[in-house]
């Protein structure tokens, strides 16, 4: 039977080190299975967060060989024989213990976003293509891998001024809904800090749901902010006709 060497981070936010474990590889095994083997065989105190093991709950986020990934979706047979597999917690968020991090900051950001705001007398009739456009954003499982890989949060720790790709996706799903009446461009520009994103597409690369975060969410939102605050022609039109956001309900 093949064996793998897993180099797993052990410790808390105060101190920690990597420990190496030998794990037998069985057919269909994923990194999360290997972590469970370590718990069962070597140390039951190894802390790890997981739930569904079906890549739908987003709980088992970690960094596997330096790349943010779901452990339940990282197949062991994709690694080269004899390769040492490093498993460590998400770097962007405070460490609790071993592979568990505190991601509560994300939920505080979520509270700041203006919720779905349809008109009281809205006619809930619209083209299927309009709802298809925002349906992609609702595939997000909040694994926060995109937040972890984002250099604005990871390397520069701009949590006080940048909401991160996950919440740009959520805002896009609201802004692009054909019935939504709210205007979130001021929030995106100021508190949301969309200007910090330089569209490297690293968030799209790690998304387990294959959401086109950069192309379909971030870039359209950037265009809205530019139109609102930096387009001289748009400013002239608003000066002449007034600054009112109008959304047309397509029937």
Describe this structure in words.
This protein is of the alpha+beta class. The chain folds into 2 domains: 3-101, Ubiquitin-like (UB roll), CATH 3.10.20; 104-241, Alpha-helical ferredoxin (Fumarate Reductase Iron-sulfur Protein, Chain B, domain 2, Orthogonal Bundle). It is 34% helix and 14% strand. The chain has helices at residues 31-41, 104-112, 128-135, 145-149, 151-154, 165-175, 185-189, 202-206, 213-229, 232-241; strands at 3-11, 16-24, 61-64, 67-70, 84-88, 95-97, 100-101. It has a 5-stranded mixed β-sheet with strand order 2-1-5-3-4. Strands 6-7 form a two-stranded antiparallel sheet. A hairpin with a 2-residue loop joins strand 6 (95-97) and strand 7. Helix 6 packs across helix 9. Mean pLDDT is 92; it is low at 246-251.
Task: Give a nutshell description of this structure.
The chain has 251 residues and is of the alpha+beta class.
SSE layout and pairings?
Blueprint: E1 3-11, E2 16-24, H1 31-41, E3 61-64, E4 67-70, E5 84-88, E6 95-97, E7 100-101, H2 104-112, H3 128-135, H4 145-149, H5 151-154, H6 165-175, H7 185-189, H8 202-206, H9 213-229, H10 232-241
Parallel strand pairs: 1-5
Antiparallel strand pairs: 1-2, 3-4, 3-5, 6-7
